[in-house]
Amino acid sequence: MVHVTDTRPADTDSEAPVSDEQFARRQAIRQIERRHRFWISSAAGTAAMIIVAVIWAIAEYHNAGGWPSQGFSQSSGIHDVWNIWIIYPFIGWVLLTATHALVVFVRRPVSEKQIRHEMERQAGRER
């Protein structure tokens, strides 16, 4: 896997300037890496949520004395009623995964035009 840590090299005399094509390539590589990390973390989170659900089911089966034939509630220890606490980690996981997806798939990489605009803005402010 190729790892690119910077978006542009520093403007020094010892470094050669990076062409727009090289810059676009680096940006594309970074985006591909972000997508890969997203899918890996989503798969790991799904596996973790499955493990949590299994632990919850085993614990509630023993606490309630059987399957939830009387439904679900917020209290524990009621015969044939399971505590519904499992929804809270699932809600948190879904929100975190959705936020991560927005960052990866909706946010666009910084363009060369945006970089030049910001450099011009900063140069105007310093003078």
Describe the structure.
It is a single chain. With 127 residues, the chain is mainly alpha-helical. The protein starts with 19 loop residues before the first helix and ends with a helix. The chain is elongated, with a radius of gyration of 25 Å. It has one domain (20-126). A two-stranded parallel sheet has the order 1-2. The model is unreliable at 9-14 (pLDDT under 50). It has three helices and two strands; from the N terminus they run αββαα.
Features:
3 helices, single chain, 127 residues, two-stranded parallel sheet, 2 strands, 3% strand, mainly alpha, elongated
Could you give the count of β-strands? 2
The best one-word shape is elongated
What is the alpha-carbon Rg in Å?
A: 25 Å
Can you give the helix content as a percent range? Answer: 55-70%
Mean pLDDT: 79
Secondary structural class: mainly alpha
Domains, number: 1
Helix count, DSSP H or I runs of 4 or more residues: 3
Approximate strand percentage: under 5%
Report how far apart the termini are. Answer: 43 Å
Order of strands across the widest beta sheet? 1-2
Largest sheet: 2 strands, parallel
Low-confidence stretches: 9-14
Instruction: Give helix and strand order, one letter per element, not per position.
Output: HEEHH
SSE diagram, text form:
Layout: H1 20-64, E1 72-73, E2 82-83, H2 87-106, H3 112-126
Parallel strand pairs: 1-2
Helix pairs in contact: 1-2
What would a concise description of this structure say?
With 127 residues, the protein is mainly alpha-helical.
